[in-house]
From TrEMBL:
It comes from Aurantimonas manganoxydans (strain ATCC BAA-1229 / DSM 21871 / SI85-9A1). This is Fructose-1,6-bisphosphatase class 1. Mg(2+) 2 binds at D120, D123, E287. Substrate binds at D123, G124, S125, S126, N215. Signal peptide: none annotated. Its EC number is 3.1.3.11. Pathway: Carbohydrate biosynthesis; Calvin cycle. One of its GO terms (biological process) is fructose 1,6-bisphosphate metabolic process. Mg(2+) 1 binds at E101, D120, L122. InterPro entries: FBPase_C_dom, FBPase_class-1, FBPase_N, FBPtase, Fructose_bisphosphatase_AS. Residues 205-338 form the Fructose-1-6-bisphosphatase class 1 C-terminal domain. Binds 2 magnesium ions per subunit.
C-alpha cells in the first residue's frame, strides 16, 4: 500500500467513525432529530474556532478583568469571545432561544424554532492563563407548544427533558463528550481529518471509586455531614472506609468530569457557609443539567446531595445548585451522610466527631 492509499484508508476509517456518522444514526430522521444533529454540528464548528483562538495565545485568548456577569463572576475576554462564537452557532441553527452564563437574560433568536440552547461558553475561566484544560458545556431542550407564548420558559424545564447535552474540553486534545440520550460517547477532534471522530465508544463510569474531587479549601465552610464524608475518606485504611482515597481538583468542571468518565470518581461542590454560596457555585441549567445527563447516560449518578439533579425545576436561568456526581455507589453514599450520618452501619463512632483537618 503506498502513502496515498494508506491516507485514503485512514480517511475512510475516520468517515465511518465520525461524529457526523454517529449523529446521522443516533439522532433519528424526524425533523427534531435532524435539527438536534445540525445544531451539534454547528456547536462543533464553533468549538474548533474557539480552540484555534485559545492555541493562538493572542490577546483575546487571555484573561484580564472585565464586566461582571449575572452570576457575579468577572468576565474574561475569552468568556466574551466564546459566548459570541456560540451565539453565532445558535443563530445558524434551529434555536429559538439562547441562554448563556455570559448573558444577563436569555437571547431570543427565532421564536418559531423548535430548540432552546443553554450554554456555559467557557467553563473553568480561572484556568485560562494557566494553560490548564477549559471547556464549553451545552444543553439542548425542546420548545413545545406550551412555551410558544414565551420561548425563554423552555430553558426552565427540568434536565430530564434534555434532548442532547455535552461538553467540549480544550486541553491537550479537543474532545467532545456527548449524549443524545442513548449512552454517552467521546469524540476527538482530528486536525488531519478536519472533524470529530469517535474516541471512546460508550462510556461506563465505574460504580466504585477511591478518588474524590472537591475544593478542600472550603472545608471549614461545609456542613458537618460533608466534613464527615471527607474525613472518612481521608482516614484511609485506618478509617471506616478501610481503604485509601486520592484527591484531584482541577477547578475546570469539564476536566474533573472527564477524568471521572475515564476512571471513576466523585465530584462535590455543595452549598457552604460563604456569602452567596448557600447553593454552591455551579449553575443548574447550563452546568449541572448537561453534566448530569451525560453522567447518568454513562451509568453514574448526579444529585444536589440528596435529590436527582435532572428532576429539579430551575427557578431561573442562572440559578445555582449544590452538585455531587460520579460513581454511583459513592454518590449514593453521600446522600446517606446528608440524610443521617449516624445511620451508616459501617461507620465507627470513633469517626463520628473526629476531623482530620482539625486535629
Ligand atoms: O474556584 P472554585 O471555587 O474551586 O470553583 C471551581 C469551579 O468553578 C467553575 O470554574 C465554574 O465555572 P465557570 O468558570 O464557567 O464560572 C467550574 O468549572 C469549577 O469546577
Ligand atoms: Mg462553568
Ligand atoms: Mg463559564
Amino acid at each position: 500500500m503506498d502513502g496515498a492509499e494508506a491516507l485514503d484508508a485512514t480517511q475512510e476509517e475516520c468517515m465511518s467513525s465520525s461524529l457526523d456518522a454517529h449523529l446521522g444514526s443516533e439522532c433519528g430522521s424526524d425533523p427534531i432529530g435532524r435539527q438536534v444533529a445540525d445544531t451539534i454540528r454547528q456547536l462543533c464548528a464553533a468549538s474548533i474556532k474557539l480552540r484555534n483562538t485559545i492555541i493562538s495565545g493572542g490577546v483575546e485568548a487571555r484573561s484580564g478583568g472585565g464586566d461582571t456577569n449575572a452570576g457575579g463572576d468577572v468576565q474574561k475576554p475569552l468568556d466574551i469571545v466564546a459566548d459570541q462564537m456560540f451565539l453565532d452557532a445558535a443563530k445558524a441553527s434551529a434555536i429559538a432561544v439562547y441562554g448563556s452564563e455570559e448573558q444577563d437574560a436569555a437571547v431570543m433568536i427565532d421564536p418559531a424554532a423548535p430548540l432552546a440552547l443553554a450554554i456555559d461558553p467557557l467553563d473553568g475561566s480561572s484556568n485560562i492563563d494557566t494553560n490548564v484544560s477549559i471547556g464549553t458545556i451545552f444543553s439542548l431542550l425542546p420548545v413545545g407548544e406550551e412555551h410558544r407564548s414565551d420561548p425563554t420558559s423552555a430553558l426552565l424545564q427540568p434536565g430530564n427533558r434534555q434532548l442532547a447535552a455535552g461538553f467540549f474540553i480544550y486541553g491537550p486534545q479537543l474532545l467532545l463528550v456527548l449524549s443524545v440520550g442513548k449512552g454517552t460517547r467521546v469524540f476527538l477532534f482530528s486536525p488531519s481529518f478536519g472533524g470529530f471522530v469517535e474516541h471512546i465508544g460508550s462510556v461506563a463510569i465505574p460504580e466504585e471509586t477511591s478518588e474524590f474531587a472537591t475544593n478542600a479549601a472550603n472545608y471549614r465552610h461545609w456542613d458537618p455531614q460533608i466534613r464527615s464524608y471527607i474525613d472518612d475518606c481521608l482516614a484511609g485504611e485506618e478509617g471506616p472506609r478501610e481503604r485509601n482515597f486520592n484527591m484531584r481538583w482541577i477547578a475546570s468542571m469539564v476536566a474533573d468530569c472527564y477524568r471521572i468518565f475515564v476512571r471513576g470518581g466523585i465530584f462535590l461542590y455543595l452549598g457552604d457557609g460563604r456569602k452567596g454560596y448557600t447553593e454552591g457555585r455551579l449553575r443548574l441549567v447550563y452546568e449541572a443539567n448537561p453534566v448530569a445527563f451525560c453522567v447518568e447516560q454513562a451509568g453514574g449518578a448526579a444529585t444536589d446531595g440528596s435529590s436527582r439533579i435532572l428532576d429539579i425545576v430551575p427557578r431561573d436561568l442562572h440559578a445555582r445548585t449544590p452538585l455531587v456526581f460520579g460513581s454511583k455507589h459513592e454518590v449514593d453514599r453521600v446522600a446517606r451522610y446528608v440524610a443521617d450520618p449516624s445511620a451508616l452501619t459501617d461507620r465507627s463512632p470513633l469517626f463520628g466527631k473526629r476531623s482530620l483537618f482539625r486535629t
